[in-house]
Structures are given as C-alpha cells and as structure tokens.
Amino acid sequence: MANPFVDTDVIIRLLTGDDPGKQAAAAALFESVEARELTLQAPDTVIADAVYVLASSRLYARTRDEVRALLSPLVRLPDFRVQNRRVVLRALDVYATTRLDFGDAMIAASMERAGSRQLYSYDAGFDRLSSIEREQPKGQD
Fold it and tell me: Would you say the pTM of this structure is higher than 0.85?
C-alpha cells in the first residue's frame, strides 16, 4: 500500500495556529511522522505553495527567514518524503538569503544540484547569483 500524501493546508494549519483544533490535529499527524509511525509524501509543489501562503502579505506576512525556519525542520523529517528534498532544502536557503521568489530559488538549487551554471532567462534577478551565468535567448536576425 502506498504512503498517504499531505496537502499544503495541513502544513499551514500546523505552522500558523490560526485554527487551534486543526493545528492540534495537524500536530498529532506530524508527531506520528516524527515518531516514525507514519510516512507521509508530498510533491515539492506543496512546499512551494506553503512558501507562497506563509510569505503573502495578504495572509501571514512571514519573513523569508521565518518561512525557512518554519518549513526546513518539517522537510527534514525522515518519514516526510518530499519530492526533491535536497533541492527544496537548498531552495529554502536561497529564498531566505536572496530576493528571488521560491520558484526561481528552486531553479537555482536544481542547477546547483545538477552542476549547471548556464541559464537561459529574461529575469535579471538571476544576475545576483555568482553561481549562475544568465543568457537571454537570441532570436534570428
């Protein structure tokens, strides 16, 4: 039998406490994961969604450092199987220490993991990273 998946909303309830009943239930769920009684899975998009929700000025307005501090310990739980775990953890670090959005931080972390330096992009924000050589696609003349 395959392991169950978890949605972003459970993670948000756990981390924000905006609904005490749901937070308690989410905490019990993740305590089971921490105790290695349950294995949960999540695609990396669940973490990306959580970053967006936690950082949104309209919702929780958490700083980049706070977002990393909240999510990294969860992603590191051995029985919380997050797709691309190492890339996600590195992207949380890049996100917390740059002005890149989390999607771009995932690109940078993925490039680092793959040993690639060259990126085709129109986004000049990548120019702030010395590990990336950004190039714009060239059109036909």
Answer: yes
**CB crowding 94-109: b at 16 or more within 10 Å, else e:** bbbebebbbebbbbbb
| Model pLDDT for residues 119-140, shown as the tens digit of each residue | 999 999 899 899 999 999 987 6
DSSP per residue over 21-51, as a string?
HHHHHHHHHHHHHHTTS--EEE-HHHHHHHH
Token pair 């793959």 is at which residue?
114
Which residue, chain included where needed, has tokens 């950004």?
Answer: 134
**Tokens at 60, concatenated:** 């929780």
Residue with structure tokens 């969604």?
49
Q: How confident is the model at residue 141 (pLDDT cuts 50, 70, 90)?
A: low
- As a whole number of angstroms, the longest Cα–Cα distance in the chain is 62
- Here the tokens at position 25 are 């239930």
Q: What are the residue boundaries of the structural domains of the chain, listed by start? A: 8-135
Q: What angle do CA 91, 93, 96 make, to 5 degrees?
A: 105
pLDDT band of residue 1 (cuts 50, 70, 90) is confident
